[in-house]
Amino acid sequence: MTDLRELQQWFVQVLRSPVGQEQLIEQRVVAGGNGMSAMDRVAIYGSSYYARLVQVMETEFPVLQQTLGEELFSQFALSYISHYPPQDYTLNKLGEYFPEFLYRSKPQEDDQWSSFIVELAHLERLINEVYHGEGPEREEHVPATEIEAILSEAWTKTMQCSFQLHRYYLDVRKAISTGGDTSEVELPEAISCRVAIFRRDYKVKLHAF
Fold this sequence. Notes:
Layout: H1 4-16, H2 22-28, H3 38-60, H4 62-68, H5 70-83, H6 98-104, H7 112-132, H8 147-152, E1 157-161, H9 165-178, E2 193-200, E3 203-208
Antiparallel strand pairs: 1-2, 2-3
Helix pairs in contact: 3-5, 4-5, 4-7, 6-7
């Protein structure tokens, strides 16, 4: 008799990749009374499983999703999830390796568009880490304009950018929140800068310097 933990682990594996598991699926999964086979029922669960993970990725990378478009973003996300399935108890870390995955997926010729997409993914990943990480809310902190003090804070992260990413990110987020057309937001200029990502009152802030 298979214990519950083993059965759960097996079922998760089947949802990710049912190929080669057909016989066990027929033995362990009860077919419905509507004519659906056990494989059909597992396929429904599998589709829902991946759809939910793509939704998590869209939540973590909303500006990237708007920039790439829903279809292309979903293709990248599904390919990424197949290589890096969730391993942690929280889905906050699901997109941890997504910027690196996109970097390795770049064309061999280093074009600006691909570099921009990778940097944008990196920025949104850092924003997610700062949002879910330690912060200054219980301590005295300096105003959000004093960059030297901000950089000295343990929870601050920095990123070297080849584009004015902070402006583009903020403009797209504003368009999303107000129901505007994100396609009207101009792509950022290819001007290098460094961006500090930090937190104030549980909100993530960006400061270019």
